[in-house]
Specification:
about 270 residues; about 15% strand; about 45% helix; single chain; alpha/beta; eight-stranded mixed β-sheet
């Protein structure tokens, strides 16, 4: 018990220090934007802040595969709120997230500073959201979406919604699938999933009290879509690729070797 409390206090102190640095960076960027009268690409600064936050919170991130260069629609399975700082620390990107995340302590502020595209679900917002993603991609910035629409227990991947993926088809950019998995002592971590009616603050404190968790991020081969390709089939193939990647992260062979299996990939409509 004493060890867990000491771990909690030390991580909170370290995270507070890191947050103060991120605040200074965000303030400096905002002042610079005001002085030069134009927006600055915040993704490099956001990546540094997210990576620092993830490290301070006790996530040990291991990346497999190569990040696609240029604007790309990144598509990942979704396990927890922690997916945001972890993936944001790996790739320069903008997130698509539900509006509720904006009100989350710390994480919501970091997401807002990173230029996250906050959306309201329902009410006929799907088309507007897709258009916003397409415009962002066309401007040269990568965007990450979680097409499951909710979080999972971290072992299987839920069915994907294809509507938002059509933004890549409209913008003429590839889709890069991502598998993310959390492991503790060589097994799927049962603490990381943020599901059901769990409360953010309680979930955060539970994680901070425990030893560092290993996070595997597998970047799969990009999928290039032509206008004539069937989006439903493409979406199904991407979901299967991410499921295969997650299964490889948690496979028994992986546990024995301590090294994630090589990422699987699919190509649809390659030219």
């Amino acid at each position: 018990m004493l060890m867990r409390q000491c771990r909690l206090i030390s991580r909170l102190a370290l995270f507070g220090f890191a947050l103060s640095i991120c605040s200074l960076i965000a303030g400096a960027v905002s002042i610079t934007e005001w002085l030069i009268r134009r927006d600055i690409d915040r993704t490099p600064f956001a990546r540094f802040c997210f990576a620092t936050a993830a490290h301070c919170l006790g996530f040990r991130v291991h990346q497999q595969g190569r990040v696609e260069q240029g604007p790309v629609l990144l598509v990942s399975n979704h396990i927890s709120w922690s997916d945001i700082p972890i993936l944001g620390g790996v790739v320069k990107l903008r997130f698509l997230s539900k509006i509720e995340v904006r009100n989350w302590p710390v994480i919501g502020w970091l997401a807002a500073q990173a230029g996250t595209l906050f959306i309201r679900r329902g009410g006929g917002q799907a088309r507007m959201t897709r258009d916003t993603i397409a415009e962002t991609l066309a401007s040269g910035q990568s965007v990450l979406v979680f097409p499951e629409g909710t979080t999972s227990v971290g072992i299987t991947v839920l069915p994907f919604h294809s509507r938002l993926l059509s933004a890549a088809q409209e913008a003429g950019v590839p889709i890069q699938p991502i598998s993310i998995g959390y492991r503790r002592s060589g097994h799927p971590d049962h603490l990381a999933p943020f599901i059901g009616d769990d409360i953010f603050q309680s979930h955060l404190l539970r994680l901070l009290r425990e030893p560092a968790v290993e996070v595997i991020v597998t970047m799969h081969a990009p999928v290039r879509i032509r206008t004539e390709d069937d989006l439903s089939s493409v979406t199904c193939g991407i979901q299967q690729t991410i499921q295969q990647g997650l299964s490889a992260i948690h496979s028994s062979a992986d546990d024995r070797s301590g090294k994630p299996a090589e990422p699987a990939g699919i190509h649809v409509g390659d030219t």
